[in-house]
Amino acid sequence: MLGPVPSPSPVPEPQASRPGASPAFESTIPIIDIRSTARSVTVAALEEGIRNGVLAGLSRPYNEKELPNLLLYNEGGLRLFEQITYQPDYYLTGLEIDILSRYAHQIADSVPDGAILLELGAGALRKTALILDALEAQGKAVTYFALDLDKPELLRTLAELKGRYTHVSLAGLWGTYDDGCTWLKQIKERPRIILWLGSSVGNMTRKEAGQFIRTFGDVLAPRDRFIIAIDSRYHKLDDIRAAYNDRAGVTRRFALNALGNINDLFNANVVDVSCFDYNPYYNEIQGRNEAYFRCLKETQFKIPSETPILVHEGEYIRFAFSHKYDRVERQMLWTAAGAHPVQEWASRDGDYALTMLSWAS
Ligand SMILES: C[S@@+](CC[C@H](N)C(=O)[O-])C[C@H]1O[C@@H](n2cnc3c(N)ncnc32)[C@H](O)[C@@H]1O
């Protein structure tokens, strides 16, 4: 997922890809390394942060252990997550596609010509393409920046859009959400639209989510917008449970890949993945899926230079949350972020929503 510490890189002006251009002349979609723009979060610091999170989380008492959810998103994990989005059980993507298929043109209406579009945690770009297609159809000259953690995946997913647009320019931003927020401060001359799709906000606690969105509000100008997609609590419990434990077992593979990623991060045999299984639990009161590893056989995490950490058979280790929001909780989130909703697009049953936020008074 993460390479060596980069030297600071200039910000190249992205080029619109030209349809029909021969591969020899077609410009490569630029991937801008912004990891070094946020000095406190260089790649080394990020990797170090995840390693520290692993150690701290595993040092907690029996059945209170946890692991950082960033372990999920290495190259293999991102590919598995893309497969999850094609599973019929993972209703979130289907609902978002339904909304975007009907309203992408309205979203495009609200994007000024000359704007930049920054997508946080872009992942695979199947849904984003619906918005970019609508912008292209309106002839809007916008620059789209896909931000994510893994450079090979940014290259792969953006390459799938190469040659598709004449008005829309494409680029990748390689870094964390925080790096993206820092980078955004340099882009003051152009209207800025932030996209945060896939209900990724659900991975944060409700408190963290409000604070996080607020940090963007502190950077954005009154004309700028933040579009966020959030899943609701208004689904059948069985549907929510199936979404986080699909019949094809892709989510299970995605989860266990995160455990294997610990071995890569420490470059050592830290954990025997076969000693664990994936065990999700939907906490109805908290309105969130909680993803756990369940220990099948007593084992030890052997982190280099640390005392081995014993995990007992039957012990649970939490590694991810997926919070759902009802209407009141959504309103509380906007309030915590200091933002107000200017437009909302919802799925047919109102159980998934895209909200456009503004900080204009
Ligand atoms: C739930 S997936 C959603 C992917 C895609 N937006 C979608 O809707 O299908 C979360 C995405 O956010 C990215 N991500 C998670 N934490 C991140 C962070 N701190 N900084 C940058 N990207 C992050 C992951 O790599 C992944 O692509």
TrEMBL record:
Matches recorded under InterPro entries: EgtD_Methyltrsf_superfamily (IPR051128), MeTrfase_dom (IPR019257), MeTrfase_EgtD-like (IPR017804), SAM-dependent_MTases_sf (IPR029063), SAM_MeTrfase_EasF-type_put (IPR017805)
Catalyzed reaction equations: 4-(3-methylbut-2-enyl)-L-tryptophan + S-adenosyl-L-methionine = 4-(3-methylbut-2-enyl)-L-abrine + S-adenosyl-L-homocysteine + H(+)
Complex formation: Homodimer.
Pathway field: Alkaloid biosynthesis; ergot alkaloid biosynthesis
Domain Histidine-specific methyltransferase SAM-dependent: 51-357
Domain of life: Eukaryota
GO biological process, any: methylation
Protein name, entry field: 4-dimethylallyltryptophan N-methyltransferase
Bias type Pro residues, positions: 1-13
Region (Disordered) location: 1-24
GO molecular function, one term: methyltransferase activity
Family: Belongs to the methyltransferase superfamily.
Organism phylogeny: Eukaryota, Fungi, Dikarya, Basidiomycota, Agaricomycotina
Keywords on record: Alkaloid metabolism, Methyltransferase, Transferase
E.C. code: 2.1.1.261
